[in-house]
Amino acid sequence: MYAIDHSDLGTPPATSAESVTLEIDGSTVTVPAGTSVMRAAALAGAAIPKLCATDSLKAFGSCRLCLVEIEGRKGFPASCTTQVAPGMKVRTQSPRLEGLRRGVVELYVSDHPLDCDGCPANGHCELQDAAAATGVTRSRYAPGATQRGVTPDVSNPYFDFNPDLCIVCSRCVRACDEIQGTLALTIEGRGFHSRVSASEHQPFLASECVSCGACVEACPTAALIEKTLVTLGAPAKAVATTCGYCGVGCSLEAEVKDSTVVRMVPNRAGHANQGHACVKGRFAWGYATHKDRVLKPMIRERITDPWREVGWDEAIGHAAREFRRIQQKYGRNAVGGITSSRCTNEETFLVQKLVRAALLTNNVDTCARVCHSPTGYGLKHTLGESAGTQAFTSVMKADVVMVIGANPTDGHPVFASQLKRRLRQGAKLIVVDPRAIDLVKTPHIEAAAHLQLRPGTNVAVINALAHVVVTEGLAKEEYALARCEPDSWRQWKEFIADARHSPEATESVTGVPAARVREAARLYAAGPNSAIYYGLGVTEHSQGTTMVMGIANLAMATGNLGREGVGVNPLRGQNNVQGSCDMGSFPHEFSGYRHVSDAATRGLFESAWDVTLADEPGLRIPNMFEAALDGSFKGMYIQGEDFVQSDPNTHHVAAALSAMECVVVQDLFLIETARYAHVLLPGSSFLEKDGTFTNAERRISRVRKVMEPLAGLADWEVTMRLAEALGYPMRYSHPSEIMDEIARLTPTFRGVTYEKLDRLGSIQWPCNDAAPEGTPTMHVGNFVRGKGRFYRTEYVATSERSTSRYPLLLTTGRVLFQYNVGTQTRRTKNLAWQKEDRLEIHPDDAETRGIRDGDLVGVASRAGEIVVRATLTRRVARGVVYTTFHFPESGVNLVTTENSDWATNCPEYKVTAVEVVKVAQPESWRARAQAERDARAARATPVG
Amino acid sequence: MDVQRLVAMANDIAAFFAAEPDPAAAAEQVAIHLKKFWEPRMREQIRRHAQAGGAGLSALALQGVKRLA
Fold first, then answer.
1. Residue A449, domain member (yes or no)
2. Count of domains forming chain A
3. What phi and psi, each to the nearest 5 degrees, are found at residue A91?
4. Could you report the per-residue pLDDT of A696-740, keeping only the tens digit for each?
5. CA distance A148 to A115
6. How many CA atoms within 13 Å lie on the side-chain side of A376?
7. What whole-number distance in Å separates Cα of residue A862 and Cα of residue A492?
8. Less Cβ around it within 10 Å: N or C end of chain B?
9. A819 and A341 in contact (C-beta within 8 Å)?
10. What strand order describes the sheet that includes A251-257?
11. How far apart are CA A302 and CA A313, in angstroms?
12. Spatial separation of the C-alpha atoms in residues A203 and A211, rounded to whole Å
């Protein structure tokens, strides 16, 4: 049900290039072939009553309300399931049709309450509309009444299901099938006993339902309805904006009543999400107004002091004076700043500008350091651009999809729904992952190959796949020679053909049977359109960059770049990871990935910013911590990042932050890192500001202010005020002016303006004179770097190996209902699904340790110890354990180590050698773990 | 900074470029990487460490570090 009405054309658009002309109610209409009569009529302005039809779902033809008359045809065909034909003459209104429709509506009404005034759907109910259209106010038929008195299912924290209001149109079931792809709903029973059922007679919360809300949106009545719509009432307006969670970057419409968000619905015109959303984007926005929000700036002299609330001027003035004092005492490079992938492009651009131009250092980095920095390095060097190559819709033209180190159904659910649609159409799936992720086997989908490798052996596997391609003659030699550097191709071919890379030689290392690798390689090479999608399971390794290069090598060798249906596609973790990287957040490069040592580029920025800029790379995040511990790095401005929870080796991070003299945290909440801060500047959520996010497909989308900043200032305004206090005034009256500056200084953004974004809906960069409306597919014809370059990707085993003391390998990830460090989702009702981190362990490994499902277990590595609860599952192989890092109380990153990617220092979250033991007395165990952490922190006490 | 950490990082970089068949070219690649991505105080520290014998540095890493101006 739509709280704010929109034009529903009844059935989805047809995609045929051919046109058909017909006559509807005497008017001539021309539509694409394959269009339904219902849609054609709606386009012609002759709306036909309907109940089971909606334009987001395939025609179903069950309600029999949309009957029409067609000249020369017998009976009254349903207009939703009847396609247009040349010369067809359709009549949508006649006394006979009116009578038939009235009878249908009366039957529906006989089993539906008529007290519309008290119904939250009043005014927006499609049954109500149908009754009005047919003049039905009561029914001649005896009440069916079988659903009356059935207790509504209110188990889901976000929506209710009231069977009494259900007309069994199956729209919810079809939405779960066609849009979400979970198939959690069905219609059970017959006749008046027909009823929507989640899984098998289960409450929605306990069922397989993933709470994406597609069913709620599809419901034509109030049978499925958001709780907020019931409690807050109908919204007055909708504001199109972009989701603040994952890298899919769904376009959403915030439906608002008096500056209060009543509900969030996916934008049906959204390019990234195609009218869909997940449980986080659609429902989990309550954190924005959570009571834990910090709304007053605070300062303190020492991190052991209590916080003192102050005004904005005092807090910002204090931070600025401290930064200047530190620079005077310890040198210009003793301070730095961190941009956030949860903030807008404009905000990250301003933070790096503040660091470079006001603090005059290149010590700026971003949280992408700990997730996708290897993507930037690897793709820039091989293909020429630090970004994914395709639009999400490209997957609908893929014949083979290889998912490596990603779990889209949990991490990128809306893309996963699209991927599942393609797989159910027949595309083949290869999964490369230590865990049996949901995609490996889910209703109507089964991976053709699951390469269940040992954590840390990605490069050995990608090399083995490439070895098969080259040695079995499956490579696209012509493509490689034409599109890539011939020398690099020949040298790489010789390198990869060596027997040490063969599946047989690497089997003992990777744990993947050689035959399965060969089968997967042949499948990928055969395509004809093969696409790779990957996640942090690729990047967060000591060889993360090597693996990204290995992926690019494989795609180039098989000709799978430069057109739709193929490509190399990093699934970015947070909503603006791509954007924060694009905006010059890394210490060695300006926006558009141009190195600070490049005099021409630096001159451009110096001219625009009226300042002399440093020409040497600055410190990366882990370097900053090291420098803090040696006493040469003392001040840090952190916008929207929680190092203490998210970064590896927590005690090391805490010791480093403790050693600093001025840590400024700008965030929505008193996050873990705020425990080490001297200044707390309130942040603003995505609902409280204007700006743009750039998603994993390089799509720039508008973020629009829905409510005023709760603390009075948007994040970009706070950065501006800080810059001014530092003596470097910035003059922007609106984020659009910041984007104008970005466009002036960044070739790939040259054609981007807010006006164009509003007009087009979104833009995929590069957007410039050569591509004024953006670039959905990259590397068409030529690679951005000219010729693609193959790199030799030797497998180098990580130093983090299982030993007799630490015999298991821990890998980490995320679940659908929580997000990243949980700062946002832990403050929503998503806790109903998951309220703690759990350790997945194979039943055999559990048995040898006397561990049962649900037991508290201690997890120890060489870095630290934690206590979590165990879940026994065969999703993980023997010797591998897995957990999430959403909850600070579990402190998962206490056990992860300082190992990192060779090129980028992206942490090796995905491989930690651990031992797991059953914990009899968790409190004493935790106390011991804490004592050890304290001791280590003391040992790491800084000098100076 | 902890020089042992820098040594480990330099060795990791060298391990990647060791795939380059020409040792001189590999050492040059290590040096280029250090110049492009390491902050000057890190480069200076590893350079001094190399001058003092370079304990813990792999042969290629040492060659690369020695190329830092």
1. yes
2. 5
3. -120, 125
4. 999 999 999 999 999 999 999 999 999 999 999 999 999 999 999
5. 13
6. 30
7. 37
8. C
9. no
10. A237-242, A251-257, A260-266
11. 20
12. 12
Query: Which helix H or strand E contains A462, and what residues bound it?
Result: helix A458-471
CATH code (residue A248): 3.30.70.20
Residue-range definition of the domain harbouring residue B45:
3-66
Per-residue pLDDT of A106-116, as tens digits, reads 999 988 888 88
Tell me what percent of chain B is helix, strand and coil, each rounded to the nearest 5.
Answer: 70, 0, 30
The answer to the question of residue A786 being in a domain is: no
CB contact under 8 A, A616 and B42: no
CATH value at residue A127: 3.10.20.740
Do A553 and A587 share a domain, yes or no?
Answer: no
Give dist(CA A456, CA A554) in Å, integer.
19
Q: Is B9 in CB contact (< 8 Å) with chain A?
A: yes
Check residue A438 and give its pLDDT. 97
What pLDDT band is residue A145 in, cutting at 50, 70 and 90? low
Distance CA(A710)–CA(A825), nearest Å, equals: 19
- Interface residue B39 vs chain A (CB under 8 A): yes
Which residue of chain B is at minimal alpha-carbon distance from A900? Answer: B9
Q: What are phi and psi of A702, to 5 degrees?
A: -75, 140
Establish if A671 belongs to a structural domain: yes
Please answer yes or no on whether B39 and A363 come within 8 Å at the CB atom. yes
Residue B14: closest C-alpha in chain A: A902
DSSP-derived secondary structure for A136-162: -SS-SSPP--TTTTPPPB--SSSEEE-
Average pLDDT (A53-80) is 96
Helices within A286-335 (DSSP H only):
312-330
Residue A396 and residue A527 in one domain = yes
Same domain, A564 and A618: no
What is the Cα–Cα distance from A38 to A16, expressed in whole angstroms?
Answer: 17
CA dist., res. A9 & res. A544, Å (int):
47
A751 and A616 within one domain: yes
**Which stretch of DSSP H or E encloses residue A21?**
strand A19-24
Contact between chains at B36 and A595 (C-beta distance less than 8 A): yes
Q: What total of structural domains would you count in chain B?
A: 1
SS3 content of chain A, % helix, strand, coil (to 5): 35, 20, 45
> What is the mean pLDDT of the segment spanning A146-153?
80
Provide the shortest C-alpha distance from residue A83 to chain B (in Å): 59
Q: Is the pLDDT of residue A2 over 70?
A: no
- Within this chain, do residues A425 and A312 fall inside the same structural domain, yes or no? no
Burial of A729 (0-12, 13-18, 19+ CB in 10 A): exposed
Please give the structure tokens belonging to residue B26: 């590999």
Residue A320 is which amino acid? A
Q: At what angle do helices A715-725 and A312-330 cross, to 10 degrees?
A: 50
Assess B48–A contact: CB distance below 8 Å, yes or no. Answer: no
> Does a structural domain hold residue A605?
yes
Q: Which residues from A are below 8 Å from B when comparing CB atoms?
A: 333, 362-363, 491, 495, 542-543, 545-546, 587-588, 595, 597, 616-620, 623, 626-627, 629-630, 632, 792-794, 796, 898, 900, 902-905
Rg (CA), chain A: 29
Q: What are phi and psi of A712, to 5 degrees?
A: 100, -25
pLDDT confidence bin for A926, thresholds 50/70/90: low
The residue segments making up the domain with residue A816 are 808-939
The amino acid at residue A272 is: A
Among the partner-chain residues A616, A629, A900, the one whose CB lies closest to the CB of B40 is A616
Q: Phi first, then psi: give them for residue A896, nearest 5 degrees.
A: -75, 160
Q: Are residues A922 and A853 part of one domain?
A: yes
The verdict on A272 and A305 lying in the same domain is: no
